[in-house]
Recover the amino acids of this structure.
C-alpha cells in the first residue's frame, strides 16, 4: 500500500506536512479496506479464502512463465516489469490472507490442541514460501511446495474447524 501513498503524494506535488499526512492516511484507509473487517462481524468464508490462495498461486505460475518469456528480450522491458510486479503482488496477497484472515481471526490460541500448532507452523511456512517466490524469478519449486502445503493446510484446518464446532455443540 505504500505504493499508493507514493502515487497520491506525486499527485499532490507539494512538500507540506499536511499533504504528507493526508497521503499516508489515504494509503492506510485503502489498506484497511482490503483487510477483513476485524469487528468481528461473524461473516467468514474459509473455503473462499483457500480458493483465493489457490487462485493467487495459479497467477504466480502464470507470472513466472511470462517473466521467462520476456526475460532478456529487447523491447519487452515494460511487459517483463509488469509481470514481476504482478508476481510480487500475488505473493503478498497470499501473505495478507494468511496473516489478516487466518492467523488473526480464525485460528484461536489453543496450544493444547494438536491442530493449533500444526496450523500456525503451516501458515508460517506459507508466508515464507510466498516471500521466497518474491525473491526468486525461477521459483517453480517454491510454488509447487506452496500448492501442496495449502492443500495440507486446508485439510488440517477443516479438521480443526470440525473440532471447534463439536465443542460448541457440547456446550
Amino acid at each position: 500500500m505504500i505504493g499508493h501513498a507514493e502515487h497520491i503524494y506525486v499527485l499532490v506535488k507539494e512538500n507540506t506536512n499536511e499533504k504528507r499526512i493526508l497521503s499516508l492516511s489515504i494509503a492506510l484507509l485503502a489498506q484497511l479496506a482490503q483487510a477483513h473487517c476485524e469487528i468481528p462481524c461473524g461473516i467468514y468464508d474459509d473455503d473462499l479464502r483457500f480458493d483465493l490462495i489457490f487462485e493467487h498461486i495459479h497467477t504466480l505460475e502464470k507470472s513466472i512463465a511470462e517473466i521467462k518469456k520476456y526475460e532478456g528480450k529487447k523491447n519487452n522491458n515494460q511487459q517483463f516489469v509488469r509481470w514481476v510486479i504482478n508476481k510480487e503482488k500475488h505473493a503478498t496477497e497470499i501473505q495478507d490472507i494468511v496473516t489478516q484472515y487466518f492467523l488473526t481471526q480464525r485460528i484461536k490460541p489453543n496450544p493444547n490442541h494438536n491442530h493449533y500448532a500444526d496450523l500456525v507452523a503451516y501458515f508460517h511456512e506459507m508466508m515464507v514460501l510466498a516471500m521466497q517466490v518474491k525473491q526468486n524469478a525461477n521459483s517453480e519449486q517454491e510454488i509447487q511446495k506452496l500448492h501442496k502445503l495449502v492443500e495440507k493446510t486446508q485439510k488440517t484446518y477443516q479438521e480443526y474447524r470440525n473440532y471447534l464446532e463439536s465443542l460448541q455443540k457440547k456446550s
Q: What stands out?
A: Helices lie at 2-12, 17-34, 46-70, 77-106, 114-135, 140-170.
